[in-house]
Amino acid sequence: TRWGSDAIGGVLHAHPIEPRLDLTLDSPTVRPRTMIGYSSADHAFGERFQLDAQVDQSLRVLGGVGYRRVGKLTGGGAVRSPTTGGIPQVPALDDDGRTQVGTGFDEVTGDGRVVMQLGEATRLVAATYVYRQYDAPRTDQCPPPYAPASECLRYDEQFRTLAYSTLETSEGPLARRLRVSLSFQRQHERRTNDRPASYVQNGGRDDVDTFGLSVNGETKSFSHASARTAVRYGADLYHDRVDSAAWTSFSDLPAVVPASRGLYLAGSHYTHGGVFVDPRVMLGEKWEARAGARVAGARAFAPSDPESGTAGVDRGWSTLVGHAGLSYRPARSLTLSGNVDRSFRAPNLDDLTSRQQAGPGFQFENASLEPEWATTLEAGASLSTTHVEAEAWVFHSDVRRAIPRVTRDASACPPSTPQCQASWTRFQLVNAPGGAEVQGVEFSGRVSLLQDVALLATFAATRGQTDNPQQRPSDPTIAYEERVPLSRIPPVNGTAQLRWRPRVGPYAGAGMRWALLQSQLAPSDLSDARIPEGGTPGFAVLDLFAGYRMGRHMLFNV
User: Fold this and answer.
1) What pLDDT, in 10s, does the model give residues 180-239?
2) b or e along 423-434 (b: 16 or more beta carbons within 10 Å of the residue's beta carbon)?
3) Strand, helix or coil at 57?
């Protein structure tokens, strides 16, 4: 409801670093800061330098630059098949049996943020963030399965630039919090697929520019009888423009042959947005009711390309989605909640038009995809006392027209796409004919044992199934399952950590991350060289850490 179509799978809410405000200062102040890090597993070294400046109480500036060089990753050895004990072809390992061949990269970062107070309740923010990654091999394609060791798909450039400005205010009855934002984002990728044995080098470049406008606000609470009401509201609109190209060069000939299309279709564009309202009502001290709705829409356009057999796309979708929930507090520290959510996700340009080497094989487009719909029911409880904080949830999602991968024969490959013909397996996204279900439980907790000593733990278990998207074979002797697992369902997993962390001085702790065997594989997972035969084995990782904090001035961590 709040975040739009792609939030059907969840949202990561990132908070930027803010320049500090010190109301006791009456003259300009600059606070330099540097961070240096090294990790032995990949011989990575990185450094960030930052300046935090306060010109006066109405103007603050923060800027930083960073650099990191990451070497080849050394692990604990091959991850063997849980059923056969065999070693998968991905990742390819060096002669020591531990170092992953297709790893390592360089990155450069930069950011700047200006905060200007326009009054006690209003401020203007302008910010830009720059990320540059160079020379990053794709681990599962360097080399690809069954290919010569000299073949490698490498991302020469992966760039992301984000710039935005926001006006934030808390003035007026409709603005306990109001934020209006204009943004621009550019994603750039340039890649090279070296195939020395064939004297061929395949190149590609993709650029996506995104223009955005969003309004997010919340009214001040108002009372009526024993009820208090507050309303979140907002609107957003985003427009993507795509440029894409591909070419082939030869090491034994001075020739470069351009392809008629790239990973995407040059000139494509995609627009999506919506308007939402999300009120909540406190009924006395024990009950809270929530309900929200969004009018959402999306439109995709891509030109046709007859030479490669690519159909054009000019399609749009609009819908109404929403949610409702109820919470009850039988005690001050305990809250019981239930929610129902109706959501949808429109297919994007990647689903509708892209041709690319994915983990399970070569994937080509489906311009006829329809949106996915999901209805989610969840119930949970949260406990918050002086020494204990905990949450537990159970959920069930019913997904209609889910978009899984199905295998295709080589005869289904589009024209002028030799990568499709050369792949061991080929896939296409389709809408599942029936329904899909995802159920799970989640838990997180924190217990304060002694002063500055805490025990933290998480647990999650998820199960997902769908009607088999593959057509039933005409030969009745070939095994066929009516229901199959969904892809990308995580195994049962959890974390535990015991830590001693005073506000200043030394600190230390120990933690463990673990997961059980994941043997519930979707049909497309069975040909994915990244997944060992029989599934991904269970694992446990033990983390030990210690450090020293000297107020705001120094932090050292190992």
Assistant:
1) 999 999 999 999 999 999 899 999 999 999 999 999 999 998 888 889 999 999 999 999
2) bebbbbbbbbee
3) coil
Q: What is the full DSSP assignment across 341-373?
A: EEEEE---HHHHH--EE-SSSEEE--TT---EE
Report which secondary-structure segment, H or E, holds 349.
helix 349-353
pLDDT tens digits, one per residue of 490-528: 999 999 999 999 989 999 999 999 999 999 999 889 888
Task: State how far the Cα of 29 lies from the Cα of 31, in Å rounded to an integer.
Answer: 7
Q: What is the CATH number of domain 5-10+30-557?
A: 2.40.170.20
Amino acid (one-letter) located at 60: R
Name residue, tokens 């830590």. 499
DSSP-derived 3-state class of residue 305: strand
- The domains of the chain are located at 5-10+30-557
Q: Is 62 helix (H, G, I), strand (E, B) or coil?
A: strand
In Å, the largest CA–CA distance within the chain is: 84
Cα–Cα dist 318/295, whole Å: 7
Beta-bridge partner residues of 426: 362, 408
* Gyration radius from the chain CA atoms: 26
pTM, 2 dp: 0.92
Q: From CA 189, how far away is CA 158, in angstroms rounded?
A: 5
Distance between CA 388 and CA 483 in Å, rounded?
Answer: 41
Q: Is 352 helix (H, G, I), strand (E, B) or coil?
A: helix
How far does Cα 118 stand from its chain's mean position?
35
Q: Report which of 287, 270, 269, 289 is spatially closest to residue 279, judged by C-alpha positions.
A: 289
How many CB atoms are closer than 10 A to CB 364? 22
Q: Rounded to an integer, what distance in angstroms lies between the CA atom of residue 438 and that of residue 74? A: 35
Token pair, residue 429, equals 């996204």
Residue 241 sits at φ, ψ, to 5 deg, of -125, 135
- Per-residue pLDDT, 115: 98
